[in-house]
């Protein structure tokens, strides 16, 4: 009980509690309207399909906490997905660990480019990453006639459908925690620990809170930012493999298009654009809400063309509410 | 054993072609409260940056820094911190949305390369640090929920936690009210008892004289005077050392005011919860009303309400006898009120824009042609007119506002407001951060304006000398209320001090 | 006389004009036949109007210290609304649709919807105080979403021939749409340089706090800025409708990067407060020449994006280094003139 009260107390803005309640409300409303029941298997399903988004959300959160922004992560993911699978296709198939390695390293490399430009030359992050986003994606498409890969190595299907543990429901179907969900949960946990219990994590918050104070305290802004943008690249790489495993297909265009959705989810989760505010739990809840909304639109029979409007409106309304709440403080 | 902690030998510092420091020798003893004073730009900030290792001094043969008798071969911020030298800058440099505990212990964590955080330990350590400075707050509170005075104490406890031997404080009392200043002095004395040396940079000479064991005066990059026996020094002596000139003496400003006329501005029962209450005030043309109070008295907030920057809870405002509603700044301007704000660089000026653009910004509506376009030649003429009228020292009014000295920058702000032909001119701390010579010039200018243009001026200040020199009538404000009101000829410095509660 | 000429030449807009000239000359030398051909010159003149108008729309929002990510979405949606209204009219008018009325309809609907969307942005940013990046990120999704729902993601086509004339017909060899661009650029130049609103936009972008203290109406400035950028976005949509003879969600998405690029290249400061219309206008023309050159040299779309992205970064790095170098040089100059004691 103590842990629960402490965790609730620690949520500074109350944003996370608010989101959690919102999710409960959403589930209840949708369940009533569309007459579907949310069972445990739906929960596991959602976790699986949102796994790559969750990992990307970690990346976006890291950047936002430090007071920066990065719109190139999706392009990095698109590039790593293609390069990794293509390499594996032409070099004997490989396995999931090799895929993570290649994608992760390549991602780090691309992220490092951002790091140098933003840190060393002190260029505005939004514009730099806008530029590198186009450069990375452009480089991919320039060198590759068709960027889709429909034939993927064997391990992809196995990894994508595998589960850590399995349960059986009333109708005799199996469901459980998929490898994909497990990976994302592990990463969420790791970074939650990093952000709260390591010097690096606290430095990230410090820089976002007050750059000048961080400098004076002896924190190396350059080094911390370098880590951040490299982590972003790494996580983008991992996320790209998760996505590929989910659909057994590489579609760089779809990967590239998730930019704004992930940013929206992280902001929904309580991260402040100016930095210093936000948490892993918040980002998790933000992604959860995003997927719940998309999922419920499907349940309600709303055509997918309405997705954008709904997500956009939710983003605007939630930020507006946040603004109004902070005004009255 | 020697009582010496820090000794600086023949330090020079040159920036490109500018000699910021010339042959500076300084000695600070343990347990000594050493005050360094000097005008803006005299080099005291540069000297502090060199002492804290942030800036390197010119590598001449005879220049070196000695700490506890040991000559320092290389000198970096890390070395300085390791030796126990801590600086508290004016902006405090705290992390606003992190906890007190984290603020206090982050430098320690960085210096000792701690990679893993134990929040419980941090909490406990912070709690004991807070006790040292007698700040009653929960270490898990977020710093941006604290008052400025409390934040300052957090900054000090941060320094103490990191093993301070020499604490440098840059203008620590600038935003503190009286009781907070007392508390601060108490803490400083406690540190002194522990053997900590303290360098205190201040500009409130009365404060400086009260707590200093030794005073060093810097002028134009050189140490001009070191005083070890402070008891015989007067404020006038210090001012003279700082400027190198004798003090300008003022005749008190005693105009004849016709109080049968309607007051140009009248406040009735102005109240804003938490800031000021039941304020009644009358202002007549031809007078300079000086409002003096300590920080937190509510002066700036009161003026903000009059000027439309903030709302009040209740009260009536009359201009020339007629009741008016001022909800935004444009309303105030419409009724002839102008405000020269406290923070010149962030509130008063567009620093990167040209002098011309700054001056013209208030009069744009008046400089439009029939088609609604700006008349460019009029803009040029208007700006030049005011540059000349207020004698703003600049070779070209197209230069950016940052190219001017503090005093001249203030003239820009005055110009832009005088251009609106106000009948009521509010000056909030008009000579803060301006050298003594330029201060006098601005005071003269204000008097001239009042006499020539027959307007009314409200001058808000912290300094008793300034209010005595310039006001025809004085109001003392304390904790949101006017506690004393008198004509200049009927009041003395002591009465003011008594009313402020600082005797 | 010498100093007057020197001061005139040092004027930013003149420098940008010379840059344009230089690029034009270089390209003419590299590929004289292809570049200087009537086809190419006209081609450039046909392509530049929508780009230019959208760039100007982006520019003013950056000057206020924010950004507008929804400009393209706005343009597309405006075009879609205009198409819908036009379709209705065509149904009503039967066999004898009046060309002038068609033009009137699409122009006014584009401008009106652009304006309304810009107004919406303005309210979010000025009244609800939502940071511009987030607000326009959201509205971008909403506008695109509305476009998707209305069109199902398919392009709207089958326009009457008069629509295409706007962007594809020339008057005295110059496309009509280019005249529109000139008019818009001229209007913006007048607005930013000669009106109270323009003046206050610059001041607000430089220091919103001082702006408030000086009696400027910050909320109104932000609102009006976004109304204008919305209006321009709508006009951009009009020209896209005409040039592509259709409109669809996602048209002009590549302009997202390009409009920011050309604004920064044109001297607009990412943090706000600075930027001249003429400089951005010349940068637009310069970039159009470069783009054309890329086409002629056979670069594909993707290589172009790579190069644009790289150029943007290079430009910013130069902007970062330039003032440092300029200061150093200035100091050395003053040192020479005034000896060793130079006041700070």
TrEMBL record, chain B:
Keyword match Transit peptide: no
Transmembrane segments: none
Keywords, comma-separated and alphabetical: ATP-binding, Cell membrane, Hydrolase, Membrane, Nucleotide-binding, Repeat, Sugar transport, Translocase, Transport
Molecular function via GO: ATP binding; ATP hydrolysis activity
Record domain ABC transporter: where: 6-245, 254-503
Keyword Repeat: yes
Xref: SUPFAM superfamilies: P-loop containing nucleoside triphosphate hydrolases
Annotated EC: 3.6.3.17
Pfam families noted in UniProt: ABC_tran
Coiled coil ranges: none
PANTHER family: CARBOHYDRATE TRANSPORT ATP-BINDING PROTEIN MG119-RELATED, XYLOSE IMPORT ATP-BINDING PROTEIN XYLG
This protein's name: Galactose/methyl galactoside import ATP-binding protein MglA
Annotated source species: bioreactor metagenome
